[in-house]
Amino acid sequence: MKPINEQTILITGATDGIGKLTSLMLAKKNAQVLIHGRNKEKVLAVVEELKNSSGNKNITGLTADFSSLADVRKLAAEVLIKYPAIDVLINNAGAGFVDERKSKDGYELRFAVNYLAPFLLTHLLLPVLKNAAPSRIVNVSSIGQSPINFDDIMFEKNFDAVQAYRQSKLALIMFTIDLAEKLKDENITVNSLHPGTYLNTNMVRNANITPLDEPKIGAEAEVYLATSKNLNNVTGKYFNEKTESKADSEAYNKESRKRLWELSVKLTNLK
Questions:
Q1: List 83, 115, 165, 238, catalytic entry
Q2: Which end of the chain, N or C, is less packed with Cβ atoms under 10 Å?
Q3: How far is the CA of 10 from the CAs of 89, 110, 135, 156, 244, in angstroms?
Q4: In which band, very low, low, confident or very high, does the pLDDT at 119 lie, cut at 50, 70 and 90?
Q5: Which domains does the chain have, with CATH numbers?
């Protein structure tokens, strides 16, 4: 990959927590950093904060509500117009246990934000990722994973926010494995990671869970997957922080992955 001070890196969900710290670390390395959030005023404030903290003025804010696939499409269109090449896409944005039940499109919120939004965004941004190749896609998942409930994928019958969250995070790992295979000849790597357990973030605190560690651990892991030369030819893998690990066994079930991919194409109306 190009030297990091010549790279353009997009981080979703970057106005607080792990995403914000990841953005700051990358800004301090003088990358061109694009940060995404859903609240325009907060995005603008964080952009100025990161510029002041890092001394890097090459930081830009992007706004989109990932509970709306239409907003995801608008974000992708804006990026495609303004940036001819994206070196790294970090799909960090996520919905937690206590967030609303439904997305703007009527889907289960965690499945929509944690999985369908990055599934769609990544596909739409492939042209600029290919332009930057060798490039990387980093999907922020979780060690908390549950098999896909294809009979009730939106939890209409028995809603359980924790199970819905865990399902969405396994779906992201399954997507990682398949996309890595599809892009193996494009010089684009795709990996996923668990950034750390119960880090001190809004998501954890809002769920009334006592944090076990600080967001810095997760940010360092995201930066590692995004920039480390050790991972130049590593793709389709799942990491527990910085260590390659194994996901739930369903992630390696080709039939389940195929079924999920086909459903995702349909739900996102991907052409």
A1: 165
A2: C
A3: 5, 21, 12, 34, 23
A4: very high
A5: 4-268 (3.40.50.720)
